Fold each of these.
Amino acid sequence: MRIVSGFVLRQIAGETIAIPSGPAARELSGLLALNGSGKLLFDLLQSEQSEDALVQAMLDTYEIDADTARADVAEFLGILRENGVLLEADPFLG
């Protein structure tokens, strides 16, 4: 899975904001405010990633347990899915 192309990250008033442009703007009418872990995951999702890889990145970066990391990743991916900005991998290609 990965983020659809067309997002620009900007620092605005100390917050990281993902701003859709081009085709991405048609999928999401608004902005995504990202906290530290959200930015980490968003950055990683610029290329194809597995959920397990995202969980491992959280474990490597933050002092949290595996259950918390997995729950945080699942919540973030759910938000991206709800907003139509996550491209799922084709199960027939993997």
Note: Helices lie at 23-27, 36-44, 51-61, 66-82.
Amino acid sequence: MLNFENLNKALFPGAGPYDIPPIAPVTDYPEGDFLPISDAMTEKSPEGKNLHCFVDDYRFARLWNTPDRYIPLLEKFRAVCAPDFSTYTDMPVAMQIYNHYRKHWCGAYWQLYGLTVYPTISWSTPESYAWCFDGEPVGGIVAVSSVGTQADRETKRLFLQGYEEMMKRLDPLWVIFYGRVPEECDWNIIRIPPNYDKIAARRRKVKA
């Protein structure tokens, strides 16, 4: 077994032309609060809570770099969303596909250990549809983020176009949604309040 890029730990049967590790569907409704993965190590009561990775990539890169080290930590939580490695429209396509692979490898690896993993769906341009849904389960619960996509007409258009494609291809039961929910997406949504909402609330409390 090749001893790099985690291939020595697990090599999954791949989906699509890039051998993306498939993630099994989860249909159990995510009861409990969602916390950012960056708070996992300091959370004193993880039981019944869920983790999401809608934070900067560097905050969860360690889950890929040293995956075995963090399995015991993740096992304390009810569920975890697959890592949201970036697929920005201005990134080289090779890097976008690599990040899609890493996201799925982590999700599939965690499922090997019995963790409940909600797939995190991301896309960039319509060209990414050729691979960005590879390995994603049909008919389960998925997670998405709209952060950084609603500021102007073009980024919102690309987000909504990809969201519609996701709904058509994956037919999810529910969508765990981080960030502002556009009117066009308001169906079977489980909303996660963004971190900046909590920060703003704390500031208002301090002011008061």
Note: The longest strand covers residues 141-145.
Amino acid sequence: MKNIILCGFMGCGKSTVGRKLSRRGNMEFVDMDRYIEEKVGMTVKEIFAKYGEQKFRDMEREACRELAERNNLVIAAGGGTLTFPENVETLRRTGRIVLIDVKYEILCERLKHDKNRPLLQVENRNEKIRTLLDERMPLYSRAASVVVNGNFGSDDVASNILAILH
């Protein structure tokens, strides 16, 4: 079976929805950030701090290539993964890319206490979310073959994705 690749902004629910999709579809769930962390033995936050964003993006590109070799996966792509055309093309070869679209206000609420996402550890978090969202949404939209409304609970979002893909 082909893979389902979930994309969208930080906090849109890729991991939560992905776990539910994998159970319902009898597929293996892979959170790309966790996959990288396990492979290198460091958290994303530690990778950013020690090596910088570019090194993390290189690791992410390699993870895309490795995961594209496998089948029957639900992959929660990192928030920046599908902003790079090479990653989009790699993952498209193996499955369908689904964008979980969530409103700005809901993202701000979901991310207000986050301490793990390196790009959000700034003074004006909501302004950073707005800037990144404005940069990334057009890229996510181009990458995705399917867009679902993610403003609802994860059960509803997972059900909508399954209904669209099957």
Note: The longest strand covers residues 95-101.
